[in-house]
Design goal:
single chain, alpha+beta, Glutaredoxin, Glutathione S-transferase Yfyf (Class Pi), Chain A, domain 2, 2 domains, four-stranded mixed beta sheet
Length: 203
């Protein structure tokens, strides 16, 4: 059985959501970051970065939320959560899978915690905050999903980022974002993941 190391109200939510989308049996292993559990030696043996989430599948350990989502989508192709190798659209799918951690997250962080001296735009992998927001808004407006009618792991990664960003007022509540996340909120797997996250957070 797969083991998902996670903590409520963290970026591990995307992995929890994707896990629910697969419909596969798995064990949730609480790694409560509010108590520093991610820094303990037993967990550092799993993820030396001291972060959640992490996924153990047999002898394989995968870390980084987007990588876990990509792995699970490829591992269970019957769920059609990926764009398979050989499909010309796989490149676009991969772009959105990694747009979250490489563009959205750093853009939000720099916007929320501005540096004393603004770095040259060319030094920032995401370019600018406004560019990230505009590009993302145009992408989700095409709907219903990033890859057209097919829901994929990329929607889990981007959708999680948008939900988190708007909840904490780190991203604007643009109509495109609100409509896209509302469509995602109708998915039973997201609802199950959210219930599990809230249940443990409340406890």
């Amino acid at each position: 059985m797969m083991q998902l190391y996670w903590s409520p109200r963290s970026r591990s939510f995307s992995a929890l959501w994707l896990m629910e989308e697969t419909g596969q049996p798995y064990e949730r292993v609480l790694t409560d970051i509010s108590t520093g559990a991610q820094k303990k030696l037993d967990y550092l043996a799993i993820n030396p970065m001291g972060k959640v989430p992490a996924l153990r599948h047999g002898d394989v350990v995968i870390t980084e939320a987007a990588a876990i989502c990509a792995y699970l989508a490829d591992e269970f192709p019957d769920k059609k959560l990926n764009i398979p190798v050989g499909n010309p659209q796989r490149g676009v799918y991969l772009k959105w899978l990694f747009f979250g951690p490489t563009c959205i997250e750093p853009a939000i962080t720099d916007h929320r915690f501005p540096r004393k001296e603004e770095p040259p735009r060319a030094m920032l992998g995401y370019g600018s905050y406004d560019t990230v927001v505009d590009v993302l808004a145009k992408a989700v407006a095409k709907g219903p999903c990033l890859m057209g009618n097919q829901f994929t792991a990329a929607d889990v990664v981007i959708g999680s980022g948008l939900r988190w960003g708007m909840a904490f007022k780190l991203l604007p509540e643009r109509p495109e974002f609100v409509a896209y996340t509302a469509r995602l909120a109708q998915r039973p797997a997201l609802q199950r993941a959210e219930a599990k996250d809230k249940e443990l957070a409340a406890a």
